[in-house]
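[agent] plan:
  1. take the single chain provided in the ticket
  2. run structure prediction with default settings
  3. attach structure tokens to the ticket
  4. add a short note for the reviewer (M.T.)
[agent] executing step 1
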Amino acid sequence: MNLKLRLVAMSFLEFFIWGAWLITIANYWFGNNIGTPPEFGKIFMTLGISSIFMPTITGIIADRWINAEKLYGILHLLSGIVMCYIPQVHDPNTFFWVMLVAMLFYMPTISLSNSIAYNTLKSNNYDVIKVFPPIRVWGTIGFIAAMWATNLSGNKGTEVQFYISAAASFILGIYSFTLPKCMPNKSIAAKGFIETMGLNAFKLFKNPKMAMFFVFAMLLGAALQLTNMYGDRFVDNFKEMPEYANLYVVKRSTIIMSISQVSETLFILAIPFFLKRFGIKNVMLISMVAWVLRFGLLAYSNPADGLWMIITSCIVYGMAFDFFNISGSLFVETQTDSKIRSSAQGLFMMMVNGFGAIIGSISSGYIIEAFFLKPDNTFDWQPIWLCFAGYSAVIAIFFFFFFKHKHDPKEVENIAH
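[agent] step 2 finished; step 3 output follows
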């Protein structure tokens, strides 16, 4: 098989595994009365916990002791086994620990898949900057395909979503052992613990500008998982209202929400234009305003005459997600010394997907339970979305006034070259 097609297959399956359950797990959790909103928040907290240290640890192992593609395959086989066990768990505390183990195996495979792709392309003299993005976009397509498969098969609220994910894990786990070899580098010099774990990047907090940027990254990271946690559940809940119950949008809510991922792939293409025109700070600010719109539109939407709001909010998601993650990564690239650039990028992802995700997932659960549950324990959706919109608006306002960074057109040109 063509080398690029082999990497496309890897990327597709990598995110198919995630998409099979990430958007629809709320339907399973609350539909089966497994636990409370705070306990559900802890389930998403496992993604953040795993993102803080596991990618670093597995990266060290792949760099020094075992082929990256073999470690990648082992982790997927193990995560698949744990996913098969999840449907047997009905206690919320046990569910948390089982999901944590699954995520400890799965989350580092995202960075490993990038390493495998980069290594393979460079070894075969491909232009990584040109060739990798079209390969990576198939990951998003895989995520969308999994969402569609789960919904169209009628399993968006059943345990089958975990079996679909596990099956893809087993396929990718076995397939991984056929990928080109990514040998460990035996010649890597031993480093101190701080340098090895990438902790030397924390000295960037001595720089007030960088410290403020990382704090904002963490605070916005708290908002990133909220629609993954509750978006599909929100639309699915309209089935409880007779006037909406038989609408296609309600029955196929996961397919409608997948517009968010489609939008994500399209807005990536628009980033170079926006960066050159408005600069990194303003692009990040646009992202924050987009989050306000995302949540605000959902607050006033419904699957009938308010369907346009749901669809628009999904389109806006692409801008909200991509503009901050990519422009933020580029900001780190321009502001840090080359000696700690990789560690700084790791710190950025740690603040967004690690600490930010933990704060957002756990705090949202407690806030919903304390203020937005109706007497019959159903969700009061409009104030929930308005609360999230208000949170994003406060971050945007503070970012605008307190984060100082002037637009320099040469800055973007330097990144490109």
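[agent] step 4 note for reviewer: The chain is about 75% helix and 0% strand.
[agent] ticket updated
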